[in-house]
Design goal:
The chain is mainly alpha-helical and 324 residues long. The chain has 9 helices and no strands.
């Protein structure tokens, strides 16, 4: 390898991965909380009209996807340099108002810019020009995010109030939110696991072609798995969006911690076995949520999870096909 890297250098890159995982989850959960905040808008306050909320909700989702792509780009570089990309994210900070979302965003982006300047300098000092270029591009994107959040930090928005208690709300108890949050935690875990495996599979695809046919077609199992994981990851992001939005609308708070902890593996076959099990566990959990929602008469949540289970079963069988 042309670039000689150290443990300290790889640790620095993994700090960036942890930060990107943090803000991706942070911005997605803030996006899903937006619908709840829209319903609390004070009509007389022009600065807090629905359009403002929708505008911020839109760019939060865009930022969340961009940040996970940044994480993927950094993970890919770490694997290329011979390291192991982390699956641990820093703790997301959500907030309860637009201005809190924005202030938390400003803080996160400022911390990122400081870290990334350090990485850019370190990459240049050892001649790792590819990593330096990657972080220069990410730096520009993070700077734009910072400027966008700064537009919202001075908003005089109303503090969040608790919904009016009614008989309809009595079915949404703490233990029910705990159950729903198991789904949120599972989706966060899957997103991190599949993103990390996707980048590791890319490396295996570049370095390992075992048969003449694989060499001629420029394809192998790792490449196929990598492409499968990329598609699956995007669906899991949609699931996280739906489930957390439902929790916020019901006056609950979504968790920010993955559970179970993501597991990566070393080969394409190991990726498939781990992901096959993850999908199986998710299906079992979600069927339990459907049964509980049916018992409580929570029709909307039941229908939502019925749709999600159909997609998770498709993922399960996709992984299963390659394990045979």
């Amino acid at each position: 390898m042309a670039v000689k890297v150290t443990f300290e250098y790889l640790t620095l890159l993994n700090q960036a991965v942890s930060r990107e995982i943090q803000v991706s989850i942070q911005y997605m959960l803030q996006h899903t909380k937006m619908e709840k905040l829209i319903r609390k808008v004070v009509p007389e306050n022009i600065l807090l009209d629905k359009t403002t909320y929708e505008a911020m909700g839109k760019f939060l989702k865009e930022f969340a996807i961009q940040e996970m792509k940044h994480a993927a780009d950094i993970m890919e570089r770490i694997y290329y340099l011979g390291g192991e990309a982390t699956t641990k994210g820093n703790l997301p900070m959500i907030g309860n108002t637009l201005s809190e979302f924005a202030r938390n965003g400003v803080r996160a982006e400022e911390e990122a810019l400081v870290l990334y300047r350090q990485i850019i300098e370190a990459a240049g000092s050892i001649g790792d020009w590819e990593t330096r270029e990657t972080f220069e591009k990410i730096y520009s994107a993070e700077e734009m995010h910072l400027f966008k959040f700064q537009e919202y930090t001075e908003m005089n928005d109303e503090p969040e109030g608790k919904g009016v208690e009614s008989e309809w709300r009595l079915i949404f108890t703490d233990d029910y939110f705990t159950l729903l949050n198991k789904a949120v935690a599972a989706e966060i875990s899957a997103i991190i696991q599949y993103t990390n495996q996707h980048e590791k599979a890319n490396l295996l695809n570049m370095r390992r072609k075992d048969t003449a046919l694989e060499v001629i077609t420029e394809n192998n199992k790792a490449k196929t798995v990598s492409e499968l994981l990329k598609k699956t990851f995007m669906v899991e992001m949609e699931h996280l969006e739906k489930i957390s939005e439902r929790i916020y609308l019901l006056e609950g708070e979504a968790t920010v911690v993955p559970d179970p902890l993501p597991k990566i593996g070393e080969t394409a076959d190991e990726f498939l076995r781990l992901d096959h099990k993850a999908e199986n566990d998710a299906i079992v959990l979600y069927r339990g949520i459907i049964a509980e929602a049916l018992k409580r008469g929570d029709t909307t949540t039941r229908h939502m999870f019925e749709g999600i289970v159909i997609q998770e079963e498709e993922h399960y069988w996709s992984f299963d096909d390659y394990l045979r």
